[in-house]
């Protein structure tokens, strides 16, 4: 009975990790294709900071799942204690990292307030200075989401250290409406926007826009995170049981 139970666990673990292996291979292949594709899709991704970052995250996740599935499959089907131990340690590290990230997110959730972002924007924003990571990131966010500041264009009225041009009043160039929401997109009317004509500006604050964009995914992301943690926990238990059962 013990041998049958061990054999059943071995094949279940192989099947489970085979699907992880296939999923990782698909993500890895898709990530590589998006980044090196010569047909022009790469330029579209590179023009959008969120898509560009997402492509590399997809590549990293694919590589991690590919390796994880490979270790689990080989360790289970060959009954190799060394591979099973590597699989267990790898899953444990991922589990602890995810758990730490969840705890830190809960502890520092107070920092993700409208007031916090407004204060940081007014303190560090340097308009079109792309050598400054903070300013460049904020410009990319405002262009991508067609928004302006944290609460709206009025956030920039109190920033006295901003280097204005002869045309600009307070609204940064990144707040101007574009035909295509990317850095390469043509302005609807840049001069009118910088002179303060509201109908050529993105008037809505980024905090509200981003919050509304991701609100529908918050509960789904939470459910998926709990599901992933549960799967990882069961995978560690299976791996350790199989490890102890192998003579």
Explain the overall architecture.
With 247 residues, the chain is mainly α. It folds into two domains: 1-111 and 234-245, no CATH class; 125-204, no CATH class. 68% of the residues lie in helices and 0% in strands. It contains eight helices and no strands. Helix 1 runs antiparallel to helix 8 (206-245) and helix 4 (81-107) runs antiparallel to helix 8. The longest helix has 40 residues, at 206-245. The chain is elongated and about 80 Å long. It starts with a helix and ends with a helix. Keywords: Glycoprotein, Membrane, Transmembrane, Transmembrane helix. Its main location: membrane. This is Tetraspanin. It comes from Ploceus nigricollis. It is found in: Membrane.
List the defining traits of the structure above.
247 residues, mainly alpha, 2 domains, 8 helices
In short:
The protein has helices spanning 2-36, 41-47, 49-77, 81-107, 114-124, 133-145, 190-194, 206-245. It is mainly alpha-helical. The longest helix has 40 residues, at 206-245.
In percent, how helical is the residue content?
55-70%
Compute the number of helices: 8
Strand content: under 5%
Report the C-alpha radius of gyration, rounded.
Answer: 25 Å
Global structural class: mainly alpha
N-C termini distance: 16 Å
Mean pLDDT: 76
For the record, the count of structural domains works out to: 2
Major sheet size, sense and barrel closure:
none
């Amino acid at each position: 009975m013990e041998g049958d139970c061990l054999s059943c666990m071995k094949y279940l673990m192989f099947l489970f990790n085979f699907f992880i292996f296939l999923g990782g291979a698909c993500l890895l292949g898709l990530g590589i294709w998006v980044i090196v594709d010569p047909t022009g899709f790469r330029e579209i991704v590179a023009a959008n900071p969120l898509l560009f970052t997402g492509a590399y995250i997809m590549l990293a996740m694919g590589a991690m799942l590919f390796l994880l599935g490979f270790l689990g499959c080989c360790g289970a089907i060959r009954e190799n204690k060394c591979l099973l131990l590597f699989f267990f340690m790898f899953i444990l590290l991922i589990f602890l990292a995810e758990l730490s990230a969840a705890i830190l997110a809960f502890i520092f959730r107070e920092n993700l307030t409208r007031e916090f972002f407004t204060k940081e924007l007014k303190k560090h924003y340097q308009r079109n200075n792309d050598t400054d990571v903070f300013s460049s990131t904020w410009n990319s966010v405002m262009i991508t989401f067609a928004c302006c500041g944290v609460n709206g264009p009025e956030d920039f009225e109190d920033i006295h250290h901003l280097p204005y041009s002869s045309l600009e009043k307070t609204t940064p160039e990144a707040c101007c409406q574009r035909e295509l929401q990317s850095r390469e997109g043509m302005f609807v009317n840049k001069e009118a926007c910088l002179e303060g004509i509201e109908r050529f500006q993105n008037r809505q604050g980024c905090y509200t826009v981003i919050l509304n964009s991701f609100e529908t995914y918050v509960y789904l992301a939470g459910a998926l995170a709990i599901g992933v943690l549960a799967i990882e926990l069961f995978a560690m238990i299976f791996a350790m049981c199989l490890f102890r059962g192998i003579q």
